């Protein structure tokens, strides 16, 4: 929101503080300020609006008392629950816990909502080519599993997961079934890990930029988040962070990283593990994109495979290679860790639904999964190439720069001319196309000039149409807003 647009009348009957309360309240009502937004510091807003700091402090306090803002020491003041209509029969807003209010960041949910909106061409959420989903085989296997294992499907299931799926995953990941925990989507795994290993105030070092779901989850666990620039991948810098912050955990996505597409070399993997072992810092290796390589041979071995000290928790999902709607993920770790995480999972959802576990297990055992992956890679390469060609045709480098991904699902892009992703997103949404705004991948509010485009989820024709719409929004935004002096931002 542009605070500079707020206007105040100095000789109005209403106090300046009252006017500021009203202005912020109506911005929250109009959703110009959405839940989870951080407001400027009191000092910064006072300076910007030429008000006294006391006026801003009092306005923030008033809005806090009304349940619209929440201050958090060291982090700032945030918009919390969405306003309720004044005539709501019961004021639920005042009942929402401080924890829930502080962690009301809707970024992921909004990404998914936009993607489900058929009016929009969405490059926002990370979804594979669903048209490749092996529907006929899946249907047949559902029949087979229901016929042969209805007790396992309909009865109680083991919290750790169905044995055939643990076995199939273990064989693929080069581990033992007892070291595999099945998850209801890998997002659940991040939550379990955070609950199991993080106490409020602990530090987590994580990719910068990095996966928004990890940022949200570790933040909600009360962790202090420290970013490590994974694109540079400087291990001396990582060592500095280990020494300075003594983190409880390193979270990284070393293969076709979300959002940048970076792949760590074998040497970088070995060096990273050596550091983690030297400083005794557990590593969460989030690895959902390993099977999505497009051009070259498969990526280097996982950190988990290279680990000789039981220090890595490997974490993955079928969402990026089959379908996110299955809500099926898994992790591999030492048996001790699996047991601890299973005890927490039991409290969360008892166990993961059995039918899809058994169908996917049979899918893997029979070799159909590998056939599917080969087909998916071909289709993803076609879509990646189409997006690359469309970007080259419609968006010259002065508007948008990007690197061509070799796997994963995304183009990570930087806007030229100082244009901001957030503004562009508003114009693009009106033109019927959406993307993921760069800011959501940073824990520290950087990323204003970056954005992520998922190339895998749309058919080539829709990719072309979507990029055309994006280019039109970008160019019209540029004509209207860009500063006179054109400065080309360097590529990341
Ligand atoms: C790095 C990373 N981890 C985890 C997830 C969550 O996947 P799931 O659908 O299994 O919860 C995603 C989804 O985008 C991701 O990119």
Number of helices: 18
Shape: globular
E-strand count: 16
Describe the sheet with the most strands: 7 strands, mixed
Q: What is the total domain count? A: 3
CATH class of the largest domain: Alpha Beta
Would you write up a description of this structure?
The protein is of the alpha/beta class and 492 residues long. The protein has three domains: 94 residues, Arc Repressor Mutant, subunit A (Orthogonal Bundle); 132 residues, Aspartate Aminotransferase, domain 1 (Alpha-Beta Complex), CATH 3.90.1150.10; 217 residues, Type I PLP-dependent aspartate aminotransferase-like (Major domain) (Aspartate Aminotransferase, domain 2, 3-Layer(aba) Sandwich). It is built from 18 helices and 16 strands. The strands form four sheets. Strands 5-11-10-9-8-6-7 form a seven-stranded mixed beta sheet, sandwiched between helices. It has a four-stranded antiparallel beta sheet with strand order 12-13-16-15. A three-stranded antiparallel beta sheet has the order 1-3-2. Helix 9 runs parallel beside helix 10, helix 11 packs parallel to helix 12 and helix 17 packs across helix 18. The chain is globular, with a radius of gyration of 24 Å. The site of pyridoxal-5'-phosphate has 14 residues, from helix 9.
